[in-house]
Amino acid sequence: MKKKILMVSPECAPFSKVGGLADMVSSISKQFAEDGCEVKIFTPLYSSIKRPDNMTKYMDNLSVHMGLGIEEFAAVWNAPLGKAEVYFLEFNRYYDRPGIYNFNSISYDDNGGRFAFMARAALEFCLATGWYPDVIHCHDWTAGLIPVYLNTTLRQSPLGRTATVFTIHNLQHQGVFDRGVLEYAGLPQSEFRSDSCESYGALNMMKGGLYNCTKITTVSPTYAKEIQTQEFGCGLDGLLRFRAGDLIGILNGVDTQEWNPATDKRIPANYSVKKMAGKAECKKALQEKVGLNVDDKVPLFGVVSRLFDQKGLDLLARIVQPLVDNMNIQLMILGNGETWLEDSFKNLTSANPGKVASFIGFNADLSHLVEAGSDFFLMPSRFEPCGLNQMYSMIYGTLPIVRRTGGLSDTVEQYVEGKGVGTGFVFDNATADALYNTIGWACSTWYDRPNDITKMRKNAMSADFTWSNSALQYDQVYDWAIASRSLGM
Ligand code: ADP
Ligand code: GLC
To answer: Domains plus CATH for the chain?
Structure first.
């Protein structure tokens, strides 16, 4: 069945992006639209969004009914994304800001109101335009109140039979706010209970979404299991075990229009598994650009990441000095996040000119060059719901070094020494020692078993990370959700 799907998301690449959520929402939408579904993406119009030429005003006065008798008026802008359509919610009080969730690492203190408003406005948009989707696909906590509205105040509305699929991209961020936000959202205070939106005396938007949605997905099969344990459940593991029968892990796919070394316009030379010469050119260009010694013999280890606890890059910061003292390697770090970690990579760069380089900030062009120009890619995450960068790096023939967790363990196949089997190097413990030793293993493979590196590159570049298989699974989840909702669930 060709469905009508509404994606509700705080980020959508290439317009607004903090991490992989933006890529996933954009690529799954394009895929379903390509397959003939009617796909609309509803997302805020932040001031940092560069408006494309084909963006037009779609609605001037969308009336948004919040609680406490508040009625606000917002505008909606429209632009195509492949065959999907993006609808941008313009409401300056909340979104005319440079950051999506925060500015200079400090969260906006009205995030509860900002995203309750986005959720409510998405539903008002459907009601006002008479477009009733079969499924509303809610992405992370910011869309968490949508299933709650559909089960309460909007149950009798034309949207009351719409199914909801809630995707957990990252359980660590749950959207926890004062209960006053529930009142502002216009939801009944009776939802402030532990089997809906309440958690430890506060409003928890993620929890509300997870209790009330029709079906739950997360972004890899391993993370789907992990979040049902106390260790990874971030306090919601009990709820996820309770809903285990409605929960499934589906690996994210990659947008191969954006990420393909054979066609990528952001890199200086294109290459493919059959014609690898361009990769060496990319390495040289990267070394020149970021101030590393130009040398094709030395293995280059790259990082592109948010610099937060989740990513385990504090482990790397601790061992950079011994690594470059003891091994003949180069490192390039592109990232931003916690100030102390940014500073420590800056200091390590000044202390090791030509061997360590860093760019602190967000830079999409450079991220493609790091993927293409590096030989290895470091991702020592403490947890990783899916992870896109390790897939991008494999597509670019850059071998990932990852911790065995979440989507990393579902996508990277361990190297078998001397056989050239595998697509990367996998380790278990989230310790600096384990990371050091694994980088050492990769380094000795580079120098002592170069044929294995060549074979692994081929393996990595031939792996299928397209949406074809995952989209099929999402389609089944949509069908399953629609069938359950029609039975009143
Ligand atoms: P997460 O969403 O947890 O940050 P993913 O691996 O799923 O991790 O996705 C990260 C995405 O964000 C990738 O597209 C990556 O290239 C991009 N990214 C992260 N940090 C930066 C940065 N500093 N500059 C450019 N792109 C970045
Ligand atoms: C989150 C996760 C990341 C995942 C991305 C897209 O940001 O941290 O692992 O790849 O969402 O689903």
So the answer is: 4-253+468-486 (3.40.50.2000), 277-465 (3.40.50.2000)
